[in-house]
């Protein structure tokens, strides 16, 4: 009887291992250890900063909007950016206040000046330049304040004023 019980337990353990292996093989490879059936988290990051607007810097809206920061969703699922913030080293803060949805693989540019927002651009509403030509640090935080990404740069003497993050 003991032998039969031992064989039954061993068979149950082996069967469980086979099932576990099959479940992990069929799990979404992008789930990053969260397990099957759980939605993958979005991967929202800073993709680049145009820190030096083309031409001479002025307080004209066209000059202000010539500088921008680009945010990308590297995930597969859309993300509502409401409550996400972007800030620079001097603590200028931009907050996504409305329901701005960023689909999987999509980007949105946040321009420094004023304008009409749409699906791929938003506007900080600043009357002065935000991104320092000599160097700065951009920080992207989620709606609860958790830091999601940073991008630091030093200004370029070559002059295109763009950094890929």
UniProtKB/TrEMBL annotation:
InterPro entries: Lamin_tail_dom, Lamin_tail_dom_sf. The keyword Phosphoprotein does not apply. It holds the Pfam family LTD. Keywords: Signal. Residues 37-158 form the LTD domain. Residues 1-27 form the signal peptide. This is LTD domain-containing protein. The lineage of its organism: Bacteria, Bacillati, Actinomycetota, Actinomycetes, Micromonosporales.
């Amino acid at each position: 009887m003991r032998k039969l019980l031992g064989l039954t337990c061993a068979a149950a353990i082996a069967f469980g291992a086979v099932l576990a292996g099959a479940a992990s093989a069929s799990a979404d490879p992008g789930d990053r250890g969260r397990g099957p059936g759980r939605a993958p988290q979005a991967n929202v990051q800073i993709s680049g900063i145009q820190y030096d607007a083309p031409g001479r810097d002025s307080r004209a809206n066209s000059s202000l909007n010539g500088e921008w920061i680009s945010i990308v969703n590297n995930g597969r699922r859309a993300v509502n950016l409401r409550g996400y913030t972007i800030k620079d080293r001097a603590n200028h803060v931009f907050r996504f206040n409305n329901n701005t949805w960023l689909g999987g693989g999509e980007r949105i540019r946040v321009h420094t000046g004023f304008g009409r927002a749409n699906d791929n651009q938003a506007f900080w509403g600043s009357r002065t330049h935000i991104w320092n030509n000599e160097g700065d640090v951009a920080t992207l935080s989620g709606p609860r304040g958790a830091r999601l990404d940073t991008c630091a740069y030093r200004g370029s003497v070559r002059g295109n004023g763009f950094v890929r993050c």
